[in-house]
Specification:
13 strands, BirA Bifunctional Protein, domain 2, 6-stranded antiparallel beta sheet, alpha+beta
Amino acid sequence: MDEALVTSLNSGPIVLFTSWNPTVSISWKQNLREDVNVKAAERDAIDIVRRKSGGRAVYLDEGYVGFTVIQPRNGIENPTHVYDFWMSKALGALHELDIGAKRHGSNDIVVNGKKIGNAAQQQLTSDGIKYTLVHGSIRSYVKDFDVMMNVLQIAGVPLKGFSKEARGIITSAEDETNSNEKELYNVLQKHLCPNGTVSSLSKEEKANVKMLKAEYSKPEWINGTGDEPSRGPCDFIFDKELMIQSLRGKVTFL
């Protein structure tokens, strides 16, 4: 989606909010078959996408509010500062809901030691346009935890046998303050684009989305080379620390 909108960039960023059908999103440099049970995904009709930003595998469904920021680079901004800026905006939204979220490391958003969200960034160029891409998601509520555990792996080891321990590692807006999905979306919109103008996709943008969807749905893109390392699931690795203690020392990941 971000690549389809790049040609619409002018002086300011584009902020895109997304909802999801059950999907596993892996990073551009992550081993698919080490970190996703592909057969389980096919059986449960879970989509698999490989995104252009970094980070780890993320399971997404109707219980998540996703956001994407596409910001033009003029050669002056420090990319790290740009990423920090948008992460602080997401944290501010959660704070307005009285959720005491903090940033942990580069990619993780946690509340009292439990993961509620994540983000990742990448510096990209498309059609000669340089831009910073930020992908993020916040968990509104936990919908199908068992489905998530059935499809995620780390270094080829299925996570479904560690569900009880893993459930204590994650949280949601609903868990923390009984906030619902609409409330979460509203505060994210308020903080990420306070002066933004809401618009629908143009005919040209829709055509670009359709074309690029076909390109990035090709098996050669989703499968990758097979030489990528295991990076594991974002929800259960804080920075580089595996939080499922029963698996520590038994799996290797980047």
